[in-house]
Specification:
Endonuclease Iii, domain 2; globular; 45% helix; mainly alpha; binds iron/sulfur cluster; 14 helices
Length: 323
């Protein structure tokens, strides 16, 4: 399985101080293998759409098909919300893919996740948190020692500097606690809006959209927005969905981007929401070939977390160095 660098969360290190609802049941909510299997079935719809040269699929007519009427704003919003409902059925277990036990661990893991995979971060953080369990401990770290521990995540000097800086700020300005407000979080060294939204959404239950590379790519493929700038993407997507959906929508979209709708070769022929996608055909449409492109639990591989939530249907990732 290829490991795709994760930009879901951490900011660029070089930057100085980063419920399922009703709907069609195309895929099993319980078995990822079935999910992929159901995708096999659903591949018929887009294939038909392609044969008739009318665009992607019935559900996405007007969303970009050749000769189709431009899709109205209302139709796009309805389609987007339906896609979210169907993604909730495909990924009822969607969750943050970083292991953490408290807001500080999530903040540290998120900073470490820039330009690497969540798996690599999850394999690295047990040693980090064993040695530096609190902001006070990390603020007092000897930089070279912290650098050595986080070296596997890459950009380890810049990341160590951010971690020591943000831990010092937590110790000195926030009584050693991670704040639960966006304005406070982004005031920490190395913490940008993306990292702050991850922490807010997953450690504080404050709704937030995580616009990472996967999220941006998919929402543009789906014609939910044409914006490239993450903050503009965030604002436009926020206008489509109620706040209560923001955090889980982010997880579902990122799950889909990592497992099926890949950057270079989306597995369109195995995509359970292809019938709603105006970009069907951008990737592999042959169902057999497409299934081979599926990743993580969808492809029968381990996930990224060493300690996944209990409802995760795939296998836990192995610790660093495990065979
Ligand atoms: S894999 Fe991506 S581009 Fe292809 S049909 Fe699915 S959502 Fe659309």
């Amino acid at each position: 399985m290829s490991a795709e660098p994760n930009s879901a969360v951490g900011e660029q290190p070089s930057a100085k101080p980063k419920k399922a609802t009703k709907g069609s049941t195309r895929t099993s909510a319980k078995s990822p293998v079935k999910g992929a299997g159901a995708a096999k079935g659903s591949a018929k719809e887009p294939a038909q759409g392609k044969e008739t040269s009318k665009g992607p699929a019935a559900g996405a007519k007007g969303a970009g098909g050749a000769g189709a009427k431009p899709e109205s704003r209302l139709a796009m919003v309805r389609r987007a919300r339906r896609m979210n409902r169907e993604l909730a059925e495909v990924y009822p277990y969607a969750h943050p893919e970083l292991d953490f036990r408290n807001p500080f661990e999530l903040l540290v893991a998120t900073v470490l996740s820039a330009q690497t995979t969540d798996l690599r971060v999850n394999q690295t953080t047990p040693a980090v948190f064993a040695k530096y369990p609190t902001p006070e401990d990390m603020a007092a770290a000897v930089p070279e020692e912290l650098e050595e521990i986080i070296r596997p995540t890459g950009f380890f000097r810049a990341k160590a500097k951010s971690l020591i800086g943000l831990s010092t700020a937590l110790r000195d300005r926030f009584d050693g606690e991670v704040p639960g407000r966006l304005a406070d979080l982004v005031s920490l060294p190395g913490v940008g809006r993306k990292t702050a939204n991850v922490v807010l959404g997953n450690a504080f239950d404050v709704p937030g959209l995580t616009v990472d590379t996967h999220f941006g790519r998919l929402v543009r493929r789906w014609k939910w927005t044409e914006q490239e700038d993450p903050e503009k993407v965030e604002a436009e997507i926020a206008a489509i969905f109620p706040k209560s959906e923001w955090t889980m929508l982010s997880h579902r979209v990122i799950f889909h981007g990592r497992r099926i709708c890949h950057s270079r070769k989306p597995a369109c022929g195995a995509c359970p929401i292809a019938h709603l996608c105006p970009s069907y055909g951008e990737g592999e449409t042959d169902p057999e070939k497409a299934r081979k492109l599926l990743k993580y639990e969808m492809g029968g591989y381990p996930g990224q977390r060493l300690n996944p939530p209990p409802d995760y249907p795939g296998k836990a990732a192995a610790p660093m160095g495990a065979v």
